[in-house]
């Protein structure tokens, strides 16, 4: 019998005997961050158990990343991934156990046997598209799809390794100075705008993986990751050798513009029915008695001696050269490639140009389509189409009840809309805008993305630009606090700028903080709440900062992983509490006057909930549509839960409260829903508004805007629409 892969001299030859209750039987392989072992459950089920290398187990930052990996893998466990059986991210040596999947990785298969046959390639394409569809439906972006992360089983391909994945709306920051992913399979936006990467980046990686499966090489080939990075951003993909019937589809997956790439559903639609008639790929049988080699397991281990997990640009060990296009860099291109990597490492942004037209009434938007309102009401619903290209959903904001509505749309620009009738008052075209966030109303001006990807200040009445800013338009770059904009440098220094003029009001480092985030602004008190989690996740430092002066009103360290989400009562702060698996398990209400904190446990765990307060009641909406009402004002007595409601929404936006005791939120299919907060009942829903009849995925699902009795929603079909918030039954 041949020796086991883990036998002999090995850096982890003295691996632990157990991970939790699982006895580790053999070493399947080792990657940059951990070792994967074969194990069995109590019932005899074969498992692949990833155990983190000892040095990384002592790194709090890596532990946080490993917790994220476990949480992501649990969310996407299904037919196209390796299901998570058990995990302990808090163990002395963190570990995760997944179902053992026999079969080679795609990288191994191509290296041993050459490119896949056309029928096998079509089945692989369909299987990976299905896998990405399910991963994205779970709200996760993989960000590192590559041949060594695809297992070929007799049941179809399985996607593994969620070590650097993240939720769509994650606030986790990309580390300055590092690339997240593997350059040959990274999308252009991962080099240019790493903090704005969406599901389309996985589709780009799919295209690159398919080229490798069809030809044995990638669409952008070089021994230097720096040159690969330049090619990905600037050069056309080399599709020579890709079967003719797939070349056009693969080429669209590799489009530089994320909006031009097909969705996984669209990829599958183009393959029917031949892909399902193709013979299933069945991996070559291994020798009798051998345990599957490195890669033939459902662990997050990277194949290839030169590949390193996660953060650094990798040099890949390749097999024999494959004939094809040879890209020979000139000295100028080498300089440009090096400059590109310097830009990526130093700033993680830029690299593309935006342009926009001038302001003016009408703009690109179509005239509003009137619909008949409910009898006896003074308000008539309206719908206005804003988008001129792409599949982006508009994002809007308002300065308050009856105030103007300001909306931004990727690929179209910024517009002001009259909330009474949907009329476009003015618009500023910006067709090169790749990602849009809700315009900021601050200091009497409107701040929205300009042609250079920076925030531009507009006159709210005329719509003409009044000044340019040096602030990135990326979400989270500038935190609005009334008439003040707060920015946080990588050094942790907080700078406050006047929203109207851009003049600096104050600059300082917050005592006790290394790199704080701002999570909440309370207009009544003028306080902005900064928070920072301890590296070990054991506590959170919270500072209440006067946005106008920079003075700290109070500071407190509370136990747990907490995030400020709302205020209640007389300046009391409400925070959510997460467990190690990034699930929200409770709320904390802190009264600074009494210096007392009350913890309210939730009756069940929620994934990435959004919270809005109505008096003492907290309305908590989970990503999967579970809505929970919790009383935060009766500490120590009574039942905290007021009611719960399963709304049936697969993915919901942040909820907002409106007049008449109604709570509103949007669904991914463009529906606007209303819930009666008194009795916890769904009382209204608009029709779905899909883009071309298909569900599209945005990096963020915009919340509706409640402006008095008018409730404004946005939808994937590019429309902004308004309904009467007092009459949800007539929607």
Features of the shown structure:
single chain; 731 residues; alpha+beta; Transferase(Phosphotransferase), domain 1; six-stranded antiparallel beta sheet; five-stranded antiparallel beta sheet; 11 helices; globular; disordered N terminus; Protein_kinase_ATP_BS; membrane; ATP-binding; PQQ_rpt_dom; transferase
Helix content: 10-25%
Share of residues in strands: 25-35%
Using the CA coordinates, give the radius of gyration: 26 Å
In the predicted model, the low-confidence regions spanning at least 5 consecutive residues are: 1-14, 167-179, 274-377
Average predicted local confidence, pLDDT = 78
Give the name of the CATH architecture of one domain.
Orthogonal Bundle
Distance between the termini: 70 Å
Number of strands: 43
Largest sheet, spatial ordering of strands: 1-2-3-4-6-5
Q: How does the overall form come out from the CA principal axes?
A: globular
Total helical elements: 11
Which CATH class of one domain? Answer: Mainly Alpha
Oligomer: single chain
Helix and strand composition category:
alpha+beta
Tell me the name of the CATH homologous superfamily of one domain: Transferase(Phosphotransferase) domain 1
Q: Please give the largest β-sheet.
A: 6 strands, antiparallel
Write down the CATH topology of one domain.
Transferase(Phosphotransferase), domain 1
Word description of this protein:
The protein is α+β, with helices and mostly antiparallel strands and 731 residues long. It contains eleven helices and 43 strands. The strands form eleven sheets. The protein has a six-stranded antiparallel sheet. Helix 4 packs antiparallel against helix 6, helix 6 packs antiparallel against helix 8 and helix 7 (225-234) packs across helix 11.
């Amino acid at each position: 019998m041949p020796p086991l892969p883990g036998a002999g001299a090995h850096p982890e030859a003295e691996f632990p005997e157990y991970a939790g209750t699982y006895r580790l039987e053999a070493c399947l392989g080792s990657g940059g961050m951990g070792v994967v072992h074969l194990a069995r459950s109590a019932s005899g089920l074969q498992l692949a158990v990833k155990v983190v290398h000892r040095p990384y187990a002592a790194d709090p930052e890596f532990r946080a990343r490993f917790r994220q990996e476990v949480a992501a893998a649990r969310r996407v466990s299904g037919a196209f991934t390796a299901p998570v059986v058990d995990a302990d991210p808090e163990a002395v040596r963190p570990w995760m156990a997944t179902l053992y999947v026999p079969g080679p990785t795609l990288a191994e298969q191509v290296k041993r046997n050459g490119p896949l046959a056309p029928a096998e390639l079509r089945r692989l394409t369909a299987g990976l598209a299905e896998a990405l569809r399910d991963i994205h439906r779970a709200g996760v972006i993989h960000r590192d799809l590559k041949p060594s992360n695809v297992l070929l089983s007799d049941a179809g391909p399985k996607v593994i390794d969620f070590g650097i994945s993240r939720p769509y709306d994650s606030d986790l920051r990309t580390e300055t100075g590092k690339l997240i992913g593997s350059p040959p399979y990274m999308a252009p936006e991962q080099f240019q705008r790493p903090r704005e990467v969406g599901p389309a980046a996985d589709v780009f990686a799919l295209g690159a993986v398919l080229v490798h499966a069809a030809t044995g090489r990638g669409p952008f080939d070089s021994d230097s990751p720096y040159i690969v990075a330049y090619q990905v951003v600037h050069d056309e993909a080399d599709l020579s050798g890709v079967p003719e019937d797939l070349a056009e589809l693969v080429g669209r997956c590799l489009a530089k513009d994320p909006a031009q790439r097909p969705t996984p559903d669209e990829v599958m639609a183009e393959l029917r029915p031949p892909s399902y008639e193709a013979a299933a790929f069945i991996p070559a049988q291994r020798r009798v008695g051998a345990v599957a080699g490195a890669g033939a397991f459902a662990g997050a281990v990277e194949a290839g001696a030169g590949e390193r997990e996660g953060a650094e640009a990798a040099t890949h060990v390749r097999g024999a050269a494959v004939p094809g296009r040879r890209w020979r860099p000139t000295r100028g291109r080498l300089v440009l490639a090096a400059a590109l990597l310097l830009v990526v490492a130093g700033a993680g942004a830029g690299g593309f140009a935006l342009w926009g037209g001038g302001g003016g009434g009408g703009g690109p938007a179509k005239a509003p389509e009137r619909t008949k309102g409910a009898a006896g009401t003074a308000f008539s619903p309206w719908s206005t189409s804003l988008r001129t290209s792409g599949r982006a959903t508009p994002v809007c904001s308002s300065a308050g009840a009856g105030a103007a509505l300001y909306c931004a749309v990727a690929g179209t620009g910024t517009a002001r809309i009259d909330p009474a009738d949907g009329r476009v008052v003015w618009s500023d075209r910006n067709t090169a805008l790749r990602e849009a966030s809700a315009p900021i109303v601050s200091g009497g001006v409107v701040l929205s993305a300009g042609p250079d990807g920076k925030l531009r200040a507009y006159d709210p009445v005329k719509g003409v630009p009044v000044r340019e800013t040096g602030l990135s338009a990326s979400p989270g770059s500038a935190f609005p606090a009334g008439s003040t904009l707060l920015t946080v440098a990588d050094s942790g220094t907080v700078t406050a700028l006047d929203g109207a003029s851009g003049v600096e009001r104050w600059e300082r480092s917050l005592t006790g903080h290394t790199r704080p985030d701002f999570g909440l602004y309370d207009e009544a008190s003028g306080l902005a709440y900064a928070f920072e989690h301890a590296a070990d996740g054991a506590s959170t430092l919270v500072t209440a900062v006067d946005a106008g002066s920079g003075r700290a009103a109070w500071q407190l360290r509370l136990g747990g992983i907490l995030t400020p989400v709302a205020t209640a009562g007389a300046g009391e702060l409400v925070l959510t509490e997460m467990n190690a698996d990034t699930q929200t398990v409770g709320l904390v209400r802190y009264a600074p006057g009494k210096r007392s904190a009350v913890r309210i446990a939730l009756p069940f765990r929620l994934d990435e909930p959004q919270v809005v307060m109505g008096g003492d009641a907290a309305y908590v909406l989970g990503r999967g549509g579970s809505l929970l009402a919790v009383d935060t004002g009766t500490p120590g007595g009574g039942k905290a839960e007021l009611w719960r409601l399963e709304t049936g929404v697969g993915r919901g936006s942040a909820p907002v409260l409106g007049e008449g005791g109604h709570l509103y939120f949007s669904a991914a299919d463009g529906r606007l829903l209303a819930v009666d907060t008194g009795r916890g009942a769904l009382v209204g829903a608009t029709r779905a508004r899909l883009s071309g009849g298909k569900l599209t995925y945005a990096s963020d699902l915009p919340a509706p805007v409640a402006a008095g009795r008018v409730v404004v929603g946005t939808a994937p079909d590019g429309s902004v629409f308004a309904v009467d918030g007092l009459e949800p039954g007539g929607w």
